[in-house]
Structures are given as structure tokens and as C-alpha cells.
Amino acid sequence: MKNIIKFFLEKIGGRKSFSPVNSQEVVETKEAVGAKEAVTVTELPISLMEQLRIQIAQDASFLYVFEAGEASTLPAGMVCLSHAGTNGEKGYITLSNGNPGAVSAGATGGYSIRLPDSIEAAASGHHITLSIVARASGGDQSRFAVAYSTNEVGNSGWRWFDVRAEWSIYTMEFDVPVMKEGRGDFVGILPDSEGKPGTEFCYLAITIS
Fold it and tell me: Residue 50: which of 14, 82, 18, 15 has the closest Cα?
């Protein structure tokens, strides 16, 4: 009986994969070294924007992506510009021309985000922490305000922040009154007034405790 010898030739090349956990790109290169296989792994660092998103989303009950613009309304006169993401980053928006007399009640007079009913119910009677990832647009500094409104039993009033040129996290806290009928909760974003520098926004998160 003849012996049959099988030879398997494997072509070893590069392979690129992406981690679903932290969005870090991992590049693996394999080389045959004698009878052994050497693997070199190079981790490409994620952007500052994504690092901050991971930080605010860690214990959050709600995460909002400004690029998508879901469940949001824009008041007359306010300017909202959308920017596509680059180098694997999400996009973001620029808000400017806020109304100095905008109300913080109801749906607010700012860029208004309608929160899901489940968040309204969960936040009722609890302490919330609202975090926003933002940076100044086209300059060294800008200003914006944020308000949490129950549209029924009170609101936080406008909370103002001085914003730097680099992506950073800006945080406010509020004790949400107990809801009665449940008319919807809103988060309002108010940029500085006309003629003042705008502010760029990419992520917003709400943590309930």
C-alpha cells in the first residue's frame, strides 16, 4: 500500500480586526519564523472624543448622539450646523445664535431634546447627573447653558458653562421633582447669543441615582 503524504500550504498574511468593546483598532501581522509563528499586535489609540463618550456612558441611563438629532427641535433664529465624522469619529453639531430670553420651562427655548418616557419615569423623584461632551467652535472659548425641564413640576433653570477649545465633559446635577401626570421631560441646550462664538456638541448622557 502506498503511503499518501499530504502537504498543506498556508499563505500567511496580515489581518485587521476591530474591537467592539473600546473601538480600538487592532492590527495583527503574522510571520513564519522556523517552526513557530510570531504575532505582532499594534493598538491604535482611540480619539479623545470617544474616550469621553466611554466615560460618560459608563453608568448612564440615557445616551444622546447630537449628530443623529433624534427627538430634537430647534427654535427660530438658532443656527445648527452638522459636521461629518472623520478618522473613525462620530460627527457633531455646532450651535450658535441663542436667544438670551429663552425660557428653561416646558420644552425649553433652546435646542430641545425630548427624553424617552422610560427616562422621565425613572428620573421622577431622583437625583440626576447630566454630562455633555462639548468644545468651543473656532476659538479659544465659548459659552453655553443647559436646563433639565419636567414640563410639569419645575425645571433646573439655565446652568451656564465656559467652554474650552478641546473636547471636555461639562456636568450639572438636579433633583427631579416627582411627576404628576407625566407630560414629558426635556433637556434644553442654549448657545451664547448672536455674534458670540458657537459651541460644538457630540454626546450627552444622563445618570440617575
Answer: 18
